[in-house]
Amino acid sequence: MNVPSDVTTDVTEAYHLPDLDYSGYEKLIIQEHGPVYVCSFNDPGNLNAMSYAQMSEFNDFLTKVRWDTRCRAIVLTGEGRSFCAGFNLKDLALDPPDDMGRIQRDFYVMQRMCSEQIVNLRKLEQPVIGALKGYAVGGGLSLACSCDLRILGESFRMNAGYLTIGYTGTDMGGAYYLPKIVGYARAAEILMTGRRFGARQLAEWGFASAVVPDDQVLPEALALAQEIADGTAPFGLRLTREALLASLDGTSFEAVIKLENRNQVLAANTQDGINGVIGMRDRSPIVFENK
Fold this sequence. Notes:
46% helix, six-stranded mixed sheet, three-stranded mixed sheet, 2-enoyl-CoA Hydratase, Chain A, domain 1, single chain
């Protein structure tokens, strides 16, 4: 096809998509392993506790990467010996800006910035695999819960830390996700006691796909993400995640069936869907091109 000289061929510019540049972060490290992106919280000296800078960068990454057709799966992890130890207390101690009081700051800036991370994770079209070791406390617990799949290191410990300092045990979607993952009673035990729960116990409750030595957490999560990315059509995978997440919302049986019907017909009539059937019939390699 001949494109007029005055028409841009840059997809990001043509469709007014965000600039998909992930190189300017200080509190995040983004590594691309082909179709699998690894997003690492990068504040190991503070156990990757959530600072304003880290949350702002993470929200920026999540907003961009959902549009990134090169990315088929995301591994979420933390640098050093901890995944995320809740909110950064140094930032919590900061005085509010001159144009707002402490309550206004806590609600309009801090709490919303915290919760937007979970909202933006939910909006992703790529599956998220957590490669988790060390501490997941408070908001770190909620980030762990928001992953679609989790690989835990033997050192992994999780608790609702805010409950023990006078706050609530539920924050950033924890009360939404955790009962659906481990059941109401077990979620209540985690969120109402403030006790630390280890990797083996959590795996027995269905929280994790596997528990491995700490040095194998990232390789195992990468292998799982690569398996998902290599073995599925991008569009079909995204529609599958959409249906799974819809089912968490208490959607009726009939509504889920209708959504599945719509998604299956859409996927079956893509070029990837057609090529997949031909490849299965002819026992030939199937190459997915997101078309």
